[in-house]
Amino acid sequence: MASVTMIEPNGHFCSDCAVRGVAVCASLDPAELREFEHLGRRVHFASGETVFSEEDITTSFFNLLEGVMRLYKLLPDGRRQIVGFALPGDFLGMNMSGRHNFSADAIGAVTVCQFAKVPFGRFIEDRPHLLQRINELAIRELSQARDHMVLLGRRSADEKVATFLLGWRGRLVSLRGSSNTVPLPMSRQDIADYLGLTIETVSRTFTKLERHGAIEIVHGGINLRDAARVEALAAA
Amino acid sequence: MASVTMIEPNGHFCSDCAVRGVAVCASLDPAELREFEHLGRRVHFASGETVFSEEDITTSFFNLLEGVMRLYKLLPDGRRQIVGFALPGDFLGMNMSGRHNFSADAIGAVTVCQFAKVPFGRFIEDRPHLLQRINELAIRELSQARDHMVLLGRRSADEKVATFLLGWRGRLVSLRGSSNTVPLPMSRQDIADYLGLTIETVSRTFTKLERHGAIEIVHGGINLRDAARVEALAAA
DNA sequence: AAACCCGATTGACCCAGATCAATTTTGACG
DNA sequence: CGTCAAAATTGATCTGGGTCAATCGGGTTT
Q1: Strand, helix or coil at A22?
Q2: Which residues pair with A222 in a beta bridge?
Q3: Is the CB atom of residue B152 positioned under 7 angstroms from any atom of strand D?
Q4: Is the Cβ of B77 closer than 8 Å to some Cβ of chain A?
Q5: Is A121 on the interface with B (CB under 8 A)?
Q6: Taking CB atoms and an 8 Å cutoff, what residues of chain A touch B128?
Q7: Among chain A residues 57-96, those with CB within 7 Å of any atom of strand D
Q8: A107-111, B97-101, B168-172 — which is least confidently predicted?
Q9: Which CATH architecture has domain A6-146?
Q10: φ and ψ of B225, to 5 deg
């Protein structure tokens, strides 16, 4: 992929960062924030670009500022499992040592705040509250990962799709506020690889939900017509 | 379940604890260890007993000392997904706040080192290296969780079983040293719920592996006859 | 050692979701 | 606006693994 990556030439200010309240940096006081500012640099990625790859040695951490990313693992024969979608505020690559254990692509244009591992590690060292914040995030992710295992191992296609729609909507709501329109910037293939299904099954399930009046498929997303019905499907 | 739980009346010594080298406490120096000693108490659980349940408010953390545990989540209708098996040295319940997000049962007799949340939290506060150790463990678990998502979402039954056997053997080897005999203390149902399969499929797959000379099914476990063949199946 | 229980195995059959194969829709570009 | 390419939908068919139903041990109780 031709790199359309761009690194901003000049500084920026954490204090008016869009994700200031949710991200790792939420645990920093104004004085720390000023110092922190020098560690990160904003980097842009074009749609489809890979931000980092599984098995790359970890040299940077990333704080997603704008856009959506898919996080995935590949089997040698090409089968793909998407282990999560990242949204603004998510902190990626927290492997203090060693290698990344998944790859991350931009879905649409993306802006990240990139930190070099070593200075970031030094900054953390005498700031246990930041480490604690990172630990909290890791534990939250672990909990999400376990929920996703239940979905992958024990849920039917209908339940998977319904659970995905509600979960994705939930995340967008807490980020942008409530709405019945659920944008789906990822492709059907991405959704399929996230849910452990094929693209055809995802498509058919969407159509089925629409026929039953539960959702309406619109360009670039869906409208939740009957949230209760979708919830009933997801709960099962 | 009738509680056969037993709490040891008197103290014990961390310094000669079986899991001293692997567990969270590996990050403590001898002086700290003596203080730490007063925080934990050994507790025994009989086979099948529940150590803690999903949605219980977290009041304790557990360090598994002896035995095996199954960690699982249930859907409202009873479907179960085992999210992992715990072995000695594993640290359970690391939700600094809130609730456990899975349940944990003893598989066979189990001994844990139980820590009350509050004093443990206080102990951590001024020992960032312990927090760092816990963070490392969380990140390792996260990585395992993602690997398991790939298995659940994208692997065939044969691959699942082969991967499980090798992974389980690997953990036992690093704990007890190499051997071609792989004890399987968990039931077929447990294995099925771990792999997102049914008990029948697990049983059939074992039989198939045995017919092909890859393994030999023995009482309480299996013998690895042809590790290379099993590895080939798992890699696929 | 007979009776019983419970986990594991095996067989017969079925079905949810995969696979294969066309369309149809959408979007990018000249 | 027309042309192409990629994404999404839809249909027809197939199959891996689930479901249902015996049967088979191995251990424990009496």
Answers
A1: coil
A2: A182, A217
A3: no
A4: yes
A5: no
A6: 125, 128, 131
A7: none
A8: B97-101
A9: Sandwich (2.60)
A10: -90, -45
- Topology, domain B156-235: Arc Repressor Mutant, subunit A (1.10.10)
**Whether A165 contacts A224, CB under 8 Å:** yes
* Statement: residue B149 has pLDDT above 80: yes
- Chain B contact present for A199, CB below 8 A: no
Q: How far is A171 from chain B (nearest CA, A)?
A: 19
CA dihedral B87, B189, A83, A36 (to 10 degrees): -30
Query: Structure tokens of B102?
Result: 């899975």
Taking the CB of residue B105, how many other CB atoms lie within 10 A of it? 21
Is it the case that residue B9 has pLDDT exceeding 90?
no
Cα-Cα end-to-end distance for chain B = 42
Q: Give per-residue pLDDT as tens, B73-95.
A: 999 999 999 999 999 999 999 88
Domain ranges of chain A: 6-146, 155-235
Q: Does domain A155-235 have CATH number 1.10.10.10?
A: yes
* Secondary structure (DSSP) of B57-109: BP-EEEEEEEEEEEEEEE-TTS-EEEEEEE-TT-EE---SSSB-SSEEEEEEE
Cβ of B50 near strand C (distance < 7 A): no
Residue bearing tokens 């099925």? B192
Confidence of residue B1 (pLDDT cuts 50, 70, 90): very low
- Considering the segment(s) B6-151 as one domain, its CATH architecture is Sandwich (2.60)
pLDDT value of residue A146:
98
| pLDDT lower than 70: segments of chain A | 1-11
For residue A7, what pLDDT is reported? 54
B232 touches chain A (CB under 8 A): no
Q: Per the structure block, which two tokens stand in for B161?
A: 């079983």
